[in-house]
Amino acid sequence: MGLLYPQKRLFLLFVVLSVVVTVVLLFMFSYIEPTDHDATVPVAENTGHSRRKRIAVSFWGRTGNHIFEYAALIGTADRNNMTPVIVENTDLVDLFDFQIPKLTVQNPTREFEVVNERLAGAYNPEVEKLKDLNKDVYLKGYLQSWKYFHPFEKKLKQKYFKFKDNLLREADEFLNQARTHLRKSKNSLYIGVHIRRGDFVRAKSRGYGAVPVPYFYRAMNYYLKKYKDVIFVVCSNGLTWCKDNLDSDFYPIQYSTLGDSGADLALLSRCNHSIISVGSFSWWSGYLAGGEVVYPVDAFPVPNTSIGDSYVRADYFLPGWTRL
Ligand SMILES: *[C@@H]1O[C@H](CO)[C@@H](O)[C@H](O)[C@H]1NC(C)=O
Ligand SMILES: *[C@@H]1O[C@H](CO)[C@@H](O)[C@H](O)[C@H]1NC(C)=O
């Protein structure tokens, strides 16, 4: 062991100090729980045993499905003290002020522990025990049950389901014009009506049902009787059918002219109460509006069909909703 030159000694001191500082920092961070996990998602790879476990969902289907999946992601992450991450593309980034960064994960089914739903429209209570897995989780399925996320409703709406400003402006403008056009008072209430047509009309044998016309009259009469001064704001992927079948001479109906499903969803979310039909998009139009929701008694799910058998009514429809 020879004598060290002053520079060498300095260098050694520097190295030792660096190591000490690094160790101290690592130690500190491993005990700090992020207060707002969404702002501090650890995008870098695993740095230690104490990193919060991550959770991702599969984005299957279309807009309405994606919202169910996103909501289940947030709810399940909260429930298990995990960090929600996005690993697949979703159109929801164009709809909401998106809060969760996307991670580049080549193959989530390999890198995460896969947890499959049991039925597309039923709650899987296994999600309450994901923290016991002690692994990153990839939740796969349609996840269509309010039970995944309803306990976190307030946070979901305030933080995660905030529509883009331009969509909200457009929606509010439409509602104001509807009121003027129908010569309604400032006290009139907006009833959002979503009428799912398209694929749902032709898929009865599989278990989707188009909702028959009388339901919409039952539902409109219900709100007219209850609130008197109302405006029905109708959005649909089959507006021609709606105009042919609904009596807009007698009923105060305003058809959406926004021409875009995302804008329609924002519009329906601004209404005071809702009439929904079938499908996840309809479901969300009611949930996001947050008032009373009326849904059809027997259109969906059709019993003894492949789709009908994958739903549990009590898990799919909120207990407080009105069945007409
Ligand atoms: C009904 O909805 C409109 C438009 O979103 C809103 O301005 C109004 O405050 C709501 N009325 C009630 C009674 O909640
Ligand atoms: C569905 O099938 C079950 C068993 O096959 C039968 O008991 C039931 O009546 C059927 N329900 C309807 C609505 O067809």
How does this model look, in words?
With 324 residues, the protein is α/β, with parallel strands linked by helices. It has 2 domains: 54-159, no CATH class; 163-323, Rossmann fold (3-Layer(aba) Sandwich), CATH 3.40.50. It is 36% helix and 12% strand. It contains 10 helices and 10 strands. A 6-stranded parallel β-sheet has the order 7-6-5-8-9-10, with helices on both faces. It has a 4-stranded parallel β-sheet with strand order 2-1-4-3. Helix 5 packs across helix 8 (261-269) and helix 8 packs parallel to helix 9. It starts with 5 loop residues before the first helix and ends with a strand. The model is unreliable at 30-44 (pLDDT under 50). Bound molecules: 2-acetamido-2-deoxy-beta-D-glucopyranose (NAG) (2 copies). One 2-acetamido-2-deoxy-beta-D-glucopyranose binds next to strand 5. Keywords: Glycoprotein, Glycosyltransferase, Golgi apparatus, Membrane, Signal-anchor, Transferase, Transmembrane, Transmembrane helix.
